[in-house]
Amino acid sequence: MRAVCWHGKHDVRVDEVADPQIVSKGDVIVKVALTCICGSDLHLYNGYVPTMKKGDIMGHEFVGEIVEAGSGVTRFHVGDRVIVPFPISCGVCWYCKRELWSLCDNSNPNSWMLEHLYGDTGGGIFGYSHMYGGFSGGQAEYVRVPFADVGLEKIPDGVPYEQVVLLTDVCPTGYQAADNCNINPGDTVAVWGCGPVGLMAMMSARHLGAERVIGIDRFPERLRMAHSQCRAEVLNYEEVDVAEALQNMTGGRGPDSCIDAVGLEAVGTGIEGVYDSVKQALRLETDRASALRQLTKACRKGGTLSIVGVYSGFIDKFPMGAIFAKGLTLHAGQAHVHKYLPHLLKLVADQQLNPSSIITHRLPLEQAPGAYKTFLNKQDDCIKIVLNPQESTGTARPGSEEAGAA
Amino acid sequence: MESSETEHSQSREWRREKRVNVGPTERKASVIGGAALAMSGLRCISKQNYASGLAMMLAGGMFLYRGQTGHCGIYDAMGVDTVHTRNSALTIEKAVTIGLPPQEVYEFWRNLENLPRFMRHLESVQVTGVRTSHWKAVGPGGISAEWDAEMMEDTPGQQISWHSVGEADVPNKGSVEFKEAPGHRGTEVKVTIDYYPPGGGAGRAAAKLAQGINAQQLEEDLKRLKQILELGEETTARRTVE
Ligand SMILES: [Zn+2]
Ligand SMILES: [Zn+2]
Q1: Using one digit for the tens of pLDDT, what is the confidence trace for B161-185?
Q2: ipTM for the complex?
Q3: Three-class SS state of B60
Q4: Which residue of A has its CA nearest to B224?
Q5: What's the Cα-to-Cα distance from A38 to each of A197, A310, B121, rounded to whole Å?
Q6: How far is the CA of A123 from the centre of ligand 2 (A)?
Q7: How many Cα atoms sit within 13 Å of A36 on the Cβ side?
């Protein structure tokens, strides 16, 4: 089959690789209909995550059709169209039973890599390096999906793949960010970062009853999207002092909840620095905590900081004093996608939520190498790219760099 | 471990002649510890953690060299001779919580032949009698160690302990406790393993280096045990059946 494989920094290629097989009885093989490039894939693309190996298949956001099922699979059958959550969850451990799906105790066979740094670690993730389990990802024609009975959600007839492909990650991630804010009537929610997750967080905050939603970014097309798709007021942080502007917009109180959908992108490097390399990697990037400091300063007393942007290492000058003095509550972590999927799927099916409205690029899988470049450089007003592995450009040769030139 | 104590002057004489200053027990222990160390070093390097990987490779290489030749330059430099020194135990302790009742976890463990299913470096455990068993461990390059073990304590649902007997390559003893975890969380499994590296400053220091790696291996082993018991099999990221 063809798959988007990691070869090194800024080097992904569409390679011909072996088809996946049923390895455990709870597996299914999914024929991928659509798969996205995620902002967090750019950490891998930028070479910041050291446990990537040449040939690793990328992608943790994908939907498709089951073409083979292991003998232990009971909830699904060949031919079912399914949504696959990006975290892999066993369904039986203490965490899974408490709906802390992304913290699954059993799904990451390489959990020791992060334990040295964090004390404990979350579950496995598709296509997201060996420290997250080393599972092959979904930017491919086919994927082996373990624990199928636990994770997958059947797509109702008549709902197109494109409507639900963002339910694999960014939509539930944004929804959880908003959910963690315990939004009350009259609340203002400010969201740092108007990328896909930030947009989804704003949409969700609206849905959960926020009176006002404020989006913060520096890319005009993203601010436009926040305004048009999420009815958000917007701030360009290159033009205004964000904390001050937010105070003035909220009668001097500050937003009731602040969502960080930026994270320490570049500091993603720290994750694998299980030993000394951590410090080295992080020294270069500590200033990227600026969004988090703004959140803390802007948030109203007793408010909530909800962090969904990826953080991985240590940050300097963390404003603990402000968190303490203002009595802030902090929520963080990978989304427990499984918990939100049924509800979100219903919202989409009932047309109350339209995540696909943020998709800006639809390309065949062959064009992945060029698509990564476009996304990285935020060219062409790029916000969300969806790749189709079943659609062929006809001219592309697997494994060739030119094949990806967009 | 050594059956006879020799006078210091005599030992110096002996060393000059035979160029052997590492005792036989330690030679085997060095090979095993070194292999684990070198392997871990390799693994770190493959994960692009170059600095610590290289450090481990170097330490591991030192072990391997010493194990194969029976001679250790560092010992020479420090005037350490372990052939003629007794040594004390190094201890590894790790715990994991498994979502099953203590009796079930105990029963799985009590069937000692199950141990190689989750202890990666164990090739086999053969039950040879009511309380006795034969253990075989392998490292890379076919380096292996074998020993007979005798069960000391066996309290169903609570504890098993054992120790190596006779001419063990790496003398060791261990115990595993099974305790009901609070709040219906299952069983807290705590494993303690004592092993006996050769005494002396350098030998002990080097063995302590390997201890971190061994502790790491035990931790991974216990995670696999948890997977096998909670899921029925070990979690794998493999894409194809090999
Ligand atoms: Zn994603
Ligand atoms: Zn689990």
Answers
A1: 999 888 766 678 889 999 999 999 9
A2: 0.86
A3: helix
A4: A109
A5: 9, 12, 39
A6: 7
A7: 33
